[in-house]
Amino acid sequence: MKHTIYYKKLGKIIISQKRIQRKIKDLAREISDHYSESEVVLICNLKGSFRFLSDLSSYLTIPTIMDFVAFSSYDGVKSEGKIRIVKDLKIDISGRHVLIIEDIIDTGITVDYLIKYLEDFKKPKDIQVCVLLDKPSKRKVVVPIHFKGFEIEDIFVVGYGLDYKEYFRELNDIRVYNE
Ligand code: IMP
Ligand code: MG
């Protein structure tokens, strides 16, 4: 066990590495079928989604281009409801299929903001959303989720890219974090 107080509050595994990987392979098949031969731009909202993007893209059988944005609404465990653009896209996505890759959707505010931002300023052909974890109980805005991994209850989780104060992204399983 690592020597920081945060690691003592780490709870049980709710989704194992094996289940995550199995689900991601299924999602990749679904996405590849959906876009058939067309090219898609995968947009990853940093930092929580970097592992999901990495594994998911490795199983896709369609041509892909990747770019990263950083919008944030979280500090610690509570949603602030405020969004900041921390890093913008580098590539031109106008007229292209865009697939947003998200680690988790909680209130929905971050993804809603990202979709509106891309539609208003970047003019893609279409935008779909792929999310690994959906926490529907705290939803404040309706977001269209086209590809979904797991639905979870209202608990704070870490691991597989998801953090608590920047810790735990390295874990291969998704675990409960006990505040
Ligand atoms: P939303 O705007 O409330 O949907 O929040 C989405 C963002 O909050 C995600 O991209 C995560 O970074 C963060 N988040 C929400 N719930 C959790 C959680 O249980 N663990 C870690 N991060 C979370
Ligand atoms: Mg995050």
What does this structure look like?
With 179 residues, the chain is an alpha/beta fold. It has a single domain, classed as Rossmann fold. Helices cover 26% and strands 35% of the residues. It has 4 helices and 9 strands; from the N terminus they run αβαβαβββαββββ. The strands form 2 sheets. A 6-stranded mixed beta sheet has the order 4-3-2-5-6-7, sandwiched between helices. The two termini are 18 Å apart. Bound molecules: inosinic acid and magnesium ion. The site of magnesium ion (MG) has 2 residues, from loops.
Protein traits:
4 helices; 35% strand; 6-stranded mixed β-sheet; 179 residues; Rossmann fold; alpha/beta; binds inosinic acid; binds magnesium ion; 3-stranded antiparallel β-sheet
Bound molecules: inosinic acid, magnesium ion
CATH architectural type: 3-Layer(aba) Sandwich
Class inferred from helices and paired strands: alpha/beta
Distance between the termini: 18 Å
Residue-averaged pLDDT: 92
Q: Tally the helices.
A: 4
The top-level CATH class is Alpha Beta
Cα-atom radius of gyration: 16 Å
Q: How many domain regions?
A: 1
Low-confidence stretches are none
Total count of strands: 9
- Classify the fold: give the CATH topology: Rossmann fold
What are the secondary-structure elements, in order, as H or E? HEHEHEEEHEEEE
Please estimate the helix content: 25-40%
Physical arrangement of strands within the biggest beta sheet: 4-3-2-5-6-7
- Beta strand %: 35-45%
Largest sheet: 6 strands, mixed
Based on Cα principal axes, name the global outline: globular
